[in-house]
Amino acid sequence: MPINRQIVLDNRPQGEASVQNFRLVTSETPPLQEGQVLVRHHFLSLDPYMRGRMNDSKSYAASQPLGEVMIGGTVGEIVESRHEGYCVGDKVVGMGGWQEYSVVDANQSGVLRKVDTSRVPLSAYLGAVGMPGVTAYYGLVHILEPKAGQTVTVTAAAGAVGSAYAALAKARGCRVVGIAGGYEKCRYATQELGYDACIDYKEHRNEVRSLSQALRDACPDGIDGHFENVGGWIMDAVMLRMNAFSRMALCGLIAGYDGQPVPMANPSLILINRMRIEGFIVSEQMQVWPAALKELGELVAEGKLRPRESIAQGIEAAPEAFIGMLKGRNFGKQLVKLL
Ligand SMILES: NC(=O)c1ccc[n+]([C@@H]2O[C@H](COP(=O)([O-])OP(=O)(O)OC[C@H]3O[C@@H](n4cnc5c(N)ncnc54)[C@H](OP(=O)(O)O)[C@@H]3O)[C@@H](O)[C@H]2O)c1
């Protein structure tokens, strides 16, 4: 059986996460039992939620146990099968974790999904046609429920969720405005992702009024629906431009993932604007996944959604790439190429 290189969580972060929280180990993959398959991972997905799992605090999901392989979405190929439903060569998406191979009990429902790579690249099943894409879909379609002609906004606009959000919002006839960090990301957002405008929050240096003014220019009719990924002063600036009866999908608060406080400066705006703010966890909304994946798959297959990917090489590069993604060094979906 092949040697498997794995990244385990070695210790929990005190404040900022660092590469020292992880450890590379090797083990031999065990022989397959009846009903199991061996998957060779081609790509590992690095996602912000993993930062929360590194803590040992109250959350919607259990903590990552120390000394065990880090949790994570993977796409790969069956290289050995003792399950009649899977053949060698089948391409699959699963939760294989930060390692080169995984042994999967294929009888368990939902642990592996076969995917068709004839029109959609394999890696896209971890991004636009995977969990991040469905996240954008759920927040936009089921919480914001925009009508054609309305203005919708999103933070972390050039990332994995943000890029799918732009395509889905444009398909619904919305004006879509992003907020992202840096000139290059904003240019990419408008030129390649379809945003009508994108604001570089770094130009506004923590000044809520200044960012809010830029939003006023980009959203002359105000904001009808906002998809929040960041929190803090950027969300405060957005709140100032929200319309009466607007909606906010609270998807992430990445500005606070290392333990920083993310206060809301002006909650009275919720009342004044009769806003509806709704948090959600995409893995609890499985009923929308089939419709979401169908639409997202079509958008990618037709070339209407071809977001960039940041690809780190080799399992040993995963910790550094993960920390970089939390700091915004990624451009689009952050992946690790394992084959
Ligand atoms: N609720 C759910 O079920 C669910 C599911 C998936 C994802 N999420 C959330 O969705 C958000 C986006 O996830 P993603 O996978 O698409 O990641 P991503 O946007 O590809 O990468 C994270 C981005 O966050 C931005 N960022 C980091 N720290 C920031 C800060 N202090 N201020 C402003 N921006 C900051 C960076 O972009 P810039 O360079 O533009 O700053 C970075 O590239 C995250 O908050 C994540 O936790 C939630």
TrEMBL record:
Keyword Oxidoreductase assigned: yes
Phylogenetic placement of the source organism: Bacteria, Pseudomonadati, Pseudomonadota, Betaproteobacteria, Burkholderiales
A Pfam family assignment: ADH_N_2
Protein name listed in UniProt: 2-alkenal reductase
Gene3D superfamilies noted in UniProt: Medium-chain alcohol dehydrogenases, catalytic domain (3.90.180.10), NAD(P)-binding Rossmann-like Domain (3.40.50.720)
Record flagged with keyword Oxidoreductase: yes
MF terms (GO), sorted A to Z: oxidoreductase activity, acting on the CH-CH group of donors, NAD or NADP as acceptor
Keyword field: Oxidoreductase
Cited SMART domains: PKS_ER
Residue ranges annotated for the Enoyl reductase (ER) domain, each copy included: 17-336
Origin: domain of life: Bacteria
InterPro entries: ADH-like_C, ADH_N_2, ER, GroES-like_sf, MDR_fam, NAD(P)-bd_dom_sf
UniProt source species: Lampropedia cohaerens
